[in-house]
What we know:
Blueprint (H helix, E strand, L loop, with lengths): L1 H25 L1 E9 L8 E7 L6 E6 L1 E6 L5 E6 L6 E5 L9 E3 L2 E3 L14 E3 L17 H13 L4 E7 L6 H21 L7 E7 L10 H7 L1 E8 L1
Parallel strand pairs: 1-7, 1-8, 10-11
Antiparallel strand pairs: 1-4, 2-3, 2-5, 5-6, 9-12, 10-12
Subcellular location: Cell outer membrane
Main location: membrane
Keywords: Cell outer membrane, Membrane
Amino acid sequence: MASLHIKLFLIVYCIAIMTFGQTADSVIRAEGKIYNAETKEPVNARISYQSLPYGSRLGTLNGTSFSFPMFDNEKYAVTVEAPGFAIAKYMLDPAQVNADRKVLQDVPLIPGNGAAAKHSVGQVMRLNNLIFQVGKSRIDPESYPELDLVVNMMKENTAMIIQLEGHTDYQGNANDNMRLSQLRVAAVKNYIVSKKIAKSRIKTKAFGGTQPLSRDDTPEAHRLNRRVELRILEN
C-alpha cells in the first residue's frame, strides 16, 4: 500500500511539474533596449505599458531596457519617456512573437524637448496594427488604440502635417485596388479628424498595389503589402 501511495504521489508530482512548465513556457515576453537614436548609447528611461483595449494589466519600469509578460494574447501599448528626448509610443502585438516566445522592440529615442520634440520631416511610420475587414475600408475597432497614438502625436506636435499612404497587395483588378486604398486612407483620416485634429493637417495618397514590399506569392507577403503608412510632411 505504501508503495502504491508513493507511485501515485510521483505521478501527481510529475503531472504538476509538466503543467507548470508548459504554462511558464507558453508565456510571451516583451523585451527591448532603449537608446539614443543619434549616438546609439543606452538611455535611462521610464517605460509604462498597458494591455489593450481596456488597460486591465499595466505597469511601469525604469532603466535602459524593459521586459514584461504579455498575458491572454493581448496587445500592449508602451510609452517610453526620458528627459531631453521625444516621447516614444509603440504597440506590441503577440502575433509578432519569435521562436523564443518573445516580442522584441528596441526603442530609439530622438533628442529633443520631451513631448514637444519634433519628428523628422520625411519620416515614414507603418501602422502595423491597423486592421480592415477583408476587401473593405471599415476599420476594425482593435485598430483604435494605434490610431489614438497617432492622434496624441499630432496633439503633442501642433505644427505637424502628415500624409496617409494606402497600399493594397497586387492581386486582382488594379483599378479596384487603387480605389480600395483611397477609401482606406480616407477612413483613417476621418477617424483622426473625429478626435479634433484639423482636416488640413492630414493629406492622403493612394498607391493601390503599385508599391509592394514583397513580390512573393504567399499569404504572408500579400498581408505585408496591405498596409497604411504615415509620412511626416511638416513639423
